[in-house]
Amino acid sequence: MSEATSADKRIPFSNRLLAFRALQQGLKFAYDNWRMWANYMVVALDVGELSEATRALGRLVEERSAKDGAAAVDEDVLERLVNAATRAQPDAAGGDSVEGTRHPNEGLLRQVSDLFDRVILPRVSSPRIFRARARLLTAQGRLEEALKAYLDAYQAGPAGTVQRGETDVEVWRAGVSEVEDIVDVLRNFGPRVEGYRWRLQAKSVLRTFMGRMRDFEDEPEWGRLVQLQEELTQEE
Fold first, then answer.
1. pLDDT by residue (tens digit) across 174-192?
2. Among candidates 188, 191, 224, 186, which has minimal Cα distance to 203?
3. pTM of this prediction?
């Protein structure tokens, strides 16, 4: 999603709301016009009509995914919707939610969850889409599913897809960071899922990545991975 310019931000809210309503009316006569849905999505998000922004993103994916693949998903918009759906809301008395008693936007949470399950993931995926899904699942307390989504994101990213014989040191360094991140996720969430063999999973990630990247054994980051392996073994 393009960032609003300074001029856009100076447009009065009442005018932006009029634009939203105009597009809403226009879609009744141009339901299959994906460009109108794209504009509607951006304006809906801008005026706080998050349910409509979610619906519009879903329509865009339905219309464009066969041609554009994962690019049909505006990942910036998707992440903003996940942020809004999982953000703590004021309690019934109008006070602020306190840490440990979060009250997500349940209606939007259900709608965004349906967007993933029914519209996006049956058609397309990407590391950012999987990570956004993982955050949503975490907010719902579905930690085992969240772990799977985080692992799917890792496997779909550079570290998970890199092949033996890679020579780009920047790819190597980015991969090391991704490995460290997924091991941290497994450490944080794995112990909270009964029977989940998170250490075995973490060791497998490390072993596979290091096996593919042995040409980088002399790089300083290699020692970080060796240390991580040792820490996992000592924690058993």
1. 999 999 999 999 999 999 9
2. 186
3. 0.87
Signed CA dihedral, 35, 50, 137, 113: sign only: negative
* Per-residue model confidence (pLDDT) at position 91: 56
Asked whether the beta carbons of 85 and 136 are under 8 A apart, the reply is: yes
b/e code 78-109 from CB counts within 10 Å (16+ = b): bbbbbebbbeeeeeeeeeeeeeeeeebbeebb
Distance CA 1, CA 7 (A): 17
Total residues found in the chain within this entry: 236
The torsion defined by the Cα of 214, 218, 224 and 228, in degrees rounded to 10, comes to 40
What number is the average pLDDT over the span 99-106? 59
**What are the residues whose beta carbons fall under 8 Å from the beta carbon of 63, sequence distance 6 or more?**
32, 34, 37, 72
CA proximity to 186, closest of 154, 157, 221? 154
Cα distances (Å, whole numbers) of residue 218 to 47, 125, 169 = 53, 35, 11
129-173 tens-digit pLDDT: 999 999 999 999 999 999 999 999 999 999 999 999 999 999 999
Alpha carbon distance 96, 91 (integer Å): 6
Burial degree of 9 (CB within 10 A; 0-12, 13-18, 19+)? exposed
